[in-house]
Amino acid sequence: MIPEFSQVILAVDLPDKLLQKGDVGVVVQSFEEGNGYAVEFFKLDGSTFTEATVSANQILIAGKNHLLHVRELV
To answer: Does residue 19 surpass a pLDDT of 90?
Structure first.
């Protein structure tokens, strides 16, 4: 189970939410004994961009060997 407030990396595109593989978010809630998560995605100014409910296999726990990357929202 991924703890709440952990940074995670999206492993798949979620076009309906305008999210792309590699986007970084924060777990705000877990569901179904860790099989699903509510993840909040932020813009660089700290405001919420969107929230998505994802399955455990759609996210990875962010670690010290990951590098952030910025993209422009379209």
So the answer is: yes
| pTM of full prediction above 0.85 | yes
CATH of domain 7-61: 2.30.30
φ/ψ region of 22 (left if φ > 0, alpha if ψ in -120 to 50, else beta) reads: left
Over residues 16-41, the mean pLDDT reads: 96
Query: Concatenated DSSP letters for 13-41?
Result: -BGGGTB-TT-EEEEEEEEGGGTEEEEEE
Structural contact between residues 49 and 73, judged by C-beta atoms closer than 8 angstroms: yes
Q: Where are the domains of the chain?
A: 7-61
